[in-house]
Design goal:
four-stranded mixed β-sheet; 151 residues; 5 helices; alpha+beta
Amino acid sequence: MVHELAEYERAPEQCHLTEGQLHAALFGPSPALFGHVAVDADDRPLGFALWFLNFSTWEGVHGVYLEDLYVRPEARGTGAGRALLATLAALCVERGYRRLDWWMIHWNPAARFYASIGAEQMREWLPYRLTGPALHALAGQARTAPARPDV
């Protein structure tokens, strides 16, 4: 379904995830990625949520960062997406986490759904990403910078 999500987001060529990689990330010795799958009455997958923990230095507690939420087109409007988000919200409340965060591509019609459950768009924060040659260039600076054991 991750590849279905990439197709939906008009970027299938950018999705290189393999089944083995996903399995290792979810079920390896020290998983840092977690997931939930919504299924129908016949146990067929309808959608998924992949998430990991983040930490708020202002709140002093962990939170959940929802990396991907996807519901197959034929299952949209059935409550599958709401059930996945409700499960994550319940996990946050149960564990004392104060935030459930995610990003959404600007043209996604799910914005109306997110607003209907009380989610607020964060307009004052801008996303940044470091990747490719720029990532490698900055990493190269770490190897040449003097090491400080207290950092």
